[in-house]
Specification:
mainly alpha; AhpD-like; about 65% helix; globular
């Protein structure tokens, strides 16, 4: 499968991607746990069907020490016993923040309050921006048919 656009050969895309990469660095520098960030990014990407991002976040999480069991169970996190209560709160937040059209109201007060029990204001802020950011990146990759499978860990850092 060939991508419709090569982001790295396009001057406009190059300028925009530079900004996107700086956003990604800001997330990594936040106090939201790195494992939680990867699980959230992976779940949002699964929901949206973004194969390129599923590839990237699965490989990055595995390289950071995430177990294959947990990675394989992200799509079925509700029934899985391998996630902490904080991670479960973040995954539910990610789902509601991604399925805004389905939920009609976005993130419910109950889901927000549950996330706030586990994360401080800075971490909640990161969670809000991460979910929004991943939805944007997923759409960019889906619209341009970015292929999956060839991502190398650290490729975009």
């Amino acid at each position: 499968m060939d991508a419709r656009l090569n982001y790295f050969d396009n001057p406009t895309a190059g300028k925009v991607l530079k900004q996107f990469m700086s956003v990604g660095r800001a997330f990594r520098e936040s106090s939201l746990p790195a494992a939680t960030q990867e699980l959230v990014a992976l779940r949002v990407s699964q929901i949206n069907g973004c194969a390129a991002c599923v590839d990237l976040h699965t490989k990055e999480a595995a390289a950071a020490g995430e177990s294959s069991v947990r990675l394989n169970l992200v799509a079925a996190w509700r029934e899985a016993t391998v996630f902490t209560e904080a991670e479960r709160a973040a995954l539910e937040f990610a789902e509601q923040g991604t399925r805004v059209a389905d939920a009609g109201t976005g993130v419910s007060d109950e889901v927000w309050a549950n996330a706030a029990k586990h994360y401080d204001q800075e971490q909640l802020t990161t969670l809000v921006f991460l979910v929004s950011f991943m939805n944007a990146v997923n759409r960019l990759n889906i619209i341009t048919c970015q292929p999956a499978g060839d991502y190398q860990v650290g490729q975009f850092h």
